[in-house]
Amino acid sequence: MKMKMVKKLVAMALVSTMALSGLAACGDTKEEKPAADTGKEEGKDNGESGEKQTLKLAAFKGGNGEKIWEDIAAAFEEEKGVEVELEMSSELDKDLTKSIQKGEFPDVVYYNLGQKSGFTETMLKEGAIADISDVFADEELKGRLLDGITDGTDAQPFADGKIYLAPIFYTPTGFWYNKNLFEGENKKYDLPTTWEEFFALGDAAKADGVSLFTFPQSGYLDATIYSMLAQAGGTEFYQKAIKYDKDTWTSEEGKKVLDTLGKLVSPEYTEKDTVANANADGGFKINQQNVIDNKALFMPNGNWVIGEMAASTPEDFRWGMMPAPKWEGDETQTMYTFTEQMWIPAEAENMDLAKEFIKFMYSDTVVDILLNNETTDKETGKTSPAPVVAPVKGAAEKLPEGTTKDCYEASTADNIVTVTGGWVATEPIEGLNMKEAVYGPAYSVNTGEMTVEDWQAQLTETWEKCAGALK
């Protein structure tokens, strides 16, 4: 793809009203048509001149803090004898759009799928992200990585066997709760494992003035829906569902998922202010705080919530996480694993060095930097451990004892089946916002504006559109 065309298309796409999000997507997260090969000559890296090479690294400034990237950049400089030009921004999508319009591209980018801007999805759609399959063809690297971590659509967004996105961090997800309510001397409830037990607990908690469930925002239901689809129909059904099989939502398994979700997000079981908070600026944290304050028992989340809510979490509070419940008679439980991604622009000047940097992200050096990460709350100045885990064998075992390690251990238990990836990318679909189409109805079902049958009809129509737009 010519740089001029990339500049034009990316600029147009990012100024459009296409708000794409969710973990993976048809027109929303793992988007659209395959990215082209770079067409660059491997020898063009500026190391040929004998000058010290400079790697331009652009990283999203988020919950993991800034120091983690400063430390990784410094370690790469020391190991490779190069310079790293580090750009960090909480509005990285906007900053990179401006740079691309001027013909300036970073060499490597840390910016996830599923962000509100849809920036990574847009870059994929326009063929502006390089195919990095060769990086993961390295036998030594393959031996270090967790089995299957590059098989999902968060690494292969087009499900075509080609890797465009490097999964550099991973996090098991599930239902988070106050562990003090379920174990110890102040135990009040038994932890449920089935949906039947879960809703029975909701009925009991209601008598205590406590809601069973809340969710930060509707998009946080993504991992829950993925795990429920796999739980209801098994891995084969899940793989068909994420590729828009026409019977997904009208099948017995699909209807079971939707009926259960509809009951879960109904006002009977979901905390009364959930929807209002979810749609208010910063209100997602109020919903999370409601679990800490025992106003709701469970919420879908990942271990980033520990650091995110550290400033308002009492010292004696203990987080717990469990998989979404299974149905009566199921022998195993399904847990969804969320990944964060790094990628190389197709127009990167230092392609070889960028690929070396991605390999470096799986080194022992980086594994240790990630595990020792800390974040500082801007309001209180309080520094808290915020370990990040690379998808490298043995990395999670190095975590200190505590909630985070418990989460990773839970994901590898004998009775747990893990799934990753998400909705397969499609060609652009005008007017479709996948996040709103799939997860948004949770709000409307809660308020009574939609029924579960309406949700089913909307999903069936969306799946038909997406199936017709597969490459």
Write structural notes for this entry:
This protein has 471 residues and is α/β, with parallel strands linked by helices. It has two domains: 52-169 and 336-416, D-Maltodextrin-Binding Protein, domain 2, CATH 3.40.190.10; 173-333 and 419-466, Periplasmic binding protein-like II (D-Maltodextrin-Binding Protein, domain 2). It has 17 helices and eleven strands. Strands 1, 2, 3, 4, 5, 6, 7, 8 and 11 form a nine-stranded mixed sheet that branches. The radius of gyration is 22 Å and the shape is globular. The relative contact order is 0.20. This is Carbohydrate ABC transporter, carbohydrate-binding protein. Residues 27-53 are annotated as: Disordered.
Q: What's the gist of this structure?
A:
The chain has 471 residues and is of the alpha/beta class. The protein is built from 17 helices and eleven strands.
